Amino acid sequence: MGRSPARRTSPRRGRRRRGTSRVVLVFLALGAVLITAGAAVAYWRDTRPPVTDDQVADVADALDAAGTPTPSAGPSTASPSAKASPSPSVSPSPSSSPSTIAIPATGPGTFVTARADGTTVGTGSQVRRYKVLVEEGIDVRPGAAAAETADVLADRRGWTRDGTNSFQLVGSGSYDFVVKIATPGTVDKICGAAGLLTRGEVNCSVGTDVVVNLKRWVLGSPEFDGPIHEYRALIVNHEVGHRIGHGHETCPGAGRPAPAMMQQIKGLKGCVANAWPHDEGGDYLGGPSVP
After folding, report:
1. CB of 277 within 8 A of CB of 285?
2. Confidence (pTM)
3. Among the listed residues 236, 228, 214, 235, the one whose alpha carbon sits nearest the alpha carbon of residue 102
4. 16-25 pLDDT, tens per residue?
5. Does position 101 have pLDDT exceeding 80, yes or no?
6. Which 3 state secondary structure label does DSSP give 247?
7. Which residue, of 75, 104, 172, 246, is most buried by count of CB atoms within 10 Å of its CB?
8. Inter-residue contact 74 to 233 (CB < 8 Å)
9. Using CA atoms, how far apart are residues 6 and 19, in angstroms rounded to an integer?
């Protein structure tokens, strides 16, 4: 008998089998990776520490500091001893104020005190204890506002550099002054009671109150082209400057840093926007006194 001819496998069928084998191997490998990843996720979920409210607040504060919509602040138009002149109604352009924090025209006039205590910063013998309060019903956390204010007052370019003043954040007990963040209407009431004209636009320092207008805290000023957290530093330094006895100053010369005690919201007069009373070397960044 003759030998039967050998059956040949077509090239197409061979390629199909090899392709199927590759697909099976890929799925097996992917399955192993998913199982391993799932085990790792389960281990992380079972062993990670619980997230506390404080940690959540810390993350939110870090996002604020990184430049997400956040408070800003502006300088004052008045000191406790002098009547403020009318301040222009100014609002930054939308591109410079991306915040989504609401700015009610007015609020209840009641405040929440930040539950925070800090160490004394500075070497000066005059230790000034202060509290930070936020008007009820606005989208600014008292703890976040207190932390930011404390950072400003602890900065080496701040008022501690004068060698006279030290500061301590307190949440209770005696104090020398309070920083109040309030709606424009409430600012007008507090400042107006002392004869100061703020027109819903600016801040003031009266008695033991450093009063921060929420509008400036959120929107900043079109005259200040630096980062928003620098503008927050300007308002704290300006108003606390009044509280410790400094009056208004003006530009010392074109191209020089504007004094922190200058009403920069009214125009820089040739100076460069600046939030700090001292430079890195400790020199006072002042200018001629004005009424």
Report:
1. yes
2. 0.66
3. 214
4. 455 555 544 5
5. yes
6. coil
7. 75
8. no
9. 25
126 φ, ψ (degrees, to nearest 5): -90, 95
- Range 143-158 average pLDDT: 97
Contacts 24+ apart (CB under 8 A), 47-50: none
The encoded tokens of residue 47 equal 């062993």
CA distances 257 to 107, 156, 286, Å, are 36, 17, 9
Partnered with residue 82 across adjacent β-strands are 79
Closest CA to 149 of 165, 167, 175, 161: 167
75 closest CA partner among 259, 251, 278, 199: 259
Looking at the DSSP bridge assignments, the partners of residue 262 are none
Angstrom CA distances, 199 to 151, 182, 203, stand at 29, 14, 10
Per DSSP, the three-state class of 60 is helix
Distance CA 159, CA 113 (A): 23
Per DSSP, which regions of 104-241 are E strands? 111-113, 126-135, 165-169, 177-182, 204-206, 209-213
Cα distances from 238 to residues 2, 233, 243, 259, 268, in angstroms, run: 111, 8, 9, 9, 15
Tens-place pLDDT, residues 12-68: 445 445 555 554 454 445 454 444 444 433 333 333 333 322 323 332 333 233 333
Is pLDDT above 70 for 75?
A: no
- Residues 179, 217 contacting (CB under 8 angstroms): no
Please tell me the distance from the alpha carbon of residue 194 to that of residue 6, in angstroms, as a whole number. Answer: 111
What pLDDT is attached to residue 21?
53
CB 86 within 8 A of CB 209: no
Distance CA 168, CA 88 (A): 34
Determine the Cα angle at 83 with ends 230 and 260, to 5°: 20
CA nearest to 73, candidates 187, 268, 218, 273? 218
Residues belonging to the chain: 291
CA atoms within 13 A on the CB side of 17: 5
At 48, list the tokens. 């990670």
